[in-house]
Specification:
By secondary structure, the protein is mostly helical. The protein contains 23 helices and two strands. Strands 1-2 form a two-stranded antiparallel sheet. Helix 5 (about 110-130) runs parallel beside helix 12 (about 240-265), helix 12 runs antiparallel to helix 15 (about 320-355) and helix 15 packs antiparallel against helix 17. The protein is globular and about 70 Å long.
Length: about 500
């Protein structure tokens, strides 16, 4: 199937950002509408990927291949399967939400703000569709730059510290990935095609070293315990849109890397080191859940809850059964909706009160009843309530984990109680009770723009919770194919 849909998904937002940047900040209204038009166009070109997708095909679809750097045999090679295609659509959808969310809130350098998100959207689509290892690396690293700028320019008081910490953590991890990729490139006779790397026979020692190199890069991005400390700082300092993209999209890049590189290229090392990854995942789910309980800042609480939820994702990958892996993928998409919505809700309150401290609120339902209803739905989804998207993925991972080992499944399941505890306790202190102070008494309910983006996310959360089949059916063939591939030893 030859088309240019993936190139459009990458380059429409990137090139569309140029006229947005050229307009400058003097024409706010024109900047906003143009940015929205570009974001909608970027989302529109991804929809045919889903509509025309063959759910029974295991290989790559919508493949594009052009010479990129012929001297080194590097190809501009794109393609998606049932694992990567949903994330291209999710990323483009979240970009539209972020542009609407920043409509009135960003007053300074609005053209640059919108432009940075549009460029990031295109680069992230490149990460999810690159089939050339070096091309993947270029997109992976380039996506750091707009996020670094977003945190560093429009963030909170400690924004420079948070931006530098985010950049250094991710960059240092990625350098090891580059070393691993160069080794694979030479071993494959000068081919950087990821699909060629899947067929390489590699000894166990080399596999383990390569696995650790890839894991350090992807674990920072997920982020897994103990390399997670950059995330709460980045979330707290980032503007609302930055937090939404970090939670909904950036964390998924690391998890996706495990599926595209670690598992299929290094199956023996993946099985050999699975107990270590499962242990780290359970620590993230349990320990970080307790850390979240102790937070006084709402953004920090949701940031830690993201780390805990992503622990379910890495757990699902390394129990090597279809339920666990599909559950992890569903959890990644659901987390994109739910965590994004939670940060938007906190942003709505922050825009009015300029505080994220739980103690500064109380009785918000009295002055913002519509907002409280939306916030309740997203809090329940964050807790994993049945009929919300948050339940589907976690339930599938727990079922898969029980099949793999009862006690691992039991440990993962009990932590769902922690998720409900920290989320609902925050909600109770912020929203319920009598009006806590004069600031809360003066709050105004959500306007039409805020209602729009919260309602769209609410529909996504409920639709996926009640009827997840449209999401899971595109994954079946690719997940089964990946698991068959991982089951075959690559030892020479």
């Amino acid at each position: 199937m030859n088309s240019y849909l993936l190139s459009l998904a990458i380059w429409v937002p990137v090139l569309g950002a140029l006229p947005v940047l050229a307009l400058g900040s003097g024409r706010r209204n024109m900047v906003r509408w143009l940015a929205l038009a570009v974001a909608l166009a970027g989302f529109a070109v991804t929809l045919p990927l889903y509509i025309g997708f063959d759910v029974h095909q295991t290989g790559m679809q919508y493949v594009e291949q052009l010479p990129w750097i012929p001297r080194f045999n590097l190809q501009y090679m794109l393609g998606v399967d049932g694992i990567s295609m949903p994330f291209v659509i999710l990323n483009s959808f979240i970009t539209v939400i972020v542009v609407i969310a920043g409509w009135d809130v960003i007053e300074e350098k609005q053209a640059q703000y919108m432009g940075a998100f549009l460029i990031m959207s295109g680069l992230v689509n490149g990460i999810f569709s690159a089939l050339d290892g070096i091309l993947f690396y270029v997109f992976f690293e380039a996506s750091l730059i707009p996020m670094y700028i977003i945190i560093g320019v429009w963030g909170g008081p400690n924004r420079v510290y948070a931006a530098i910490k985010f950049f250094l953590y991710t960059l240092l991890g990625s350098l090891l990935m580059l070393v691993a990729m160069i080794w694979l490139f030479l071993e494959a006779g000068g081919s950087a095609s990821i699909l060629d790397w899947y067929r390489l026979p590699i000894g166990l020692t080399a596999q383990i070293l390569l696995f650790i190199a890839f894991m350090l890069s992807f674990a920072v991005k997920v982020p897994m315990w103990p390399v997670h400390t950059w995330l709460p700082d980045a979330h707290v300092e980032a503007p609302t849109g930055g937090s939404v993209v970090l939670a909904a999209i950036a964390l998924k890049q690391g998890a996706y890397g495990f599926l595209r590189f670690s598992l299929p290229i290094l199956p023996d090392a993946s099985h050999y080191l699975a107990p270590m990854v499962i242990t780290l995942s359970l620590i993230a789910v349990v320990y970080i859940g307790f850390v979240a309980l102790a937070q006084a800042d709402m953004k920090k609480l949701v940031a830690y809850s993201s780390i805990s939820h992503m622990g379910f994702v890495t757990l699902g990958f390394f129990i090597f059964n279809p339920l666990g892996m599909e559950g992890a993928l569903v959890q990644m998409i659901s987390h994109g909706f739910v965590a994004g919505a939670m940060f938007l809700c906190i942003g709505v309150m922050y825009d009015r009160m300029h505080s994220r401290q739980i103690a500064d609120y109380g009785g918000v339902v009295n002055t913002m009843p519509k907002f409280a209803a939306f916030f309740m739905l997203f809090a329940m989804a964050n807790s994993g309530l049945p009929a919300t998207s948050g339940f589907v993925g976690e339930f599938m991972v727990v079922l898969g984990a029980v099949k793999f080992n009862f006690w691992i499944g039991f440990a993962a399941a009990t932590t769902l109680i922690l998720g409900a505890a920290y989320t609902l306790w925050m909600y109770k202190r912020v929203v319920f009770g009598a009006v806590a102070n004069d600031h809360v008494a003066k709050l105004t309910d959500i306007n039409a723009r805020e209602f729009l983006f919260l309602a769209v996310l609410a529909i996504c959360v409920l639709a996926m919770g009640l009827y997840p089949l449209p999401v899971t059916e595109v994954m079946h063939a690719s997940v089964d194919n990946l698991l068959k591939h991982v089951a075959v030893s690559k030892l020479p």
